[in-house]
Amino acid sequence: MTHNNIDMTSIKGTALTALAYVASMLDIEQMTKIGLMGIGILSGVTTIVYNIQKIKKLKDNEKR
Hints:
By secondary structure, the chain is mainly α. It is built from two helices and no strands. α1 packs antiparallel against α2.
């Protein structure tokens, strides 16, 4: 069984990570750069954890 649904949560998380990365490279104050890098890291890790949980849930549903 294949699942080809678009996952908007993953897309938004990836977009936020990319935007925070790009913004952190701009010529802005150092503390702002560090804050944006933190946001990027946090949203990236959260997106990965969300996707792992979703994959596990899909596998559990397929076993039933």
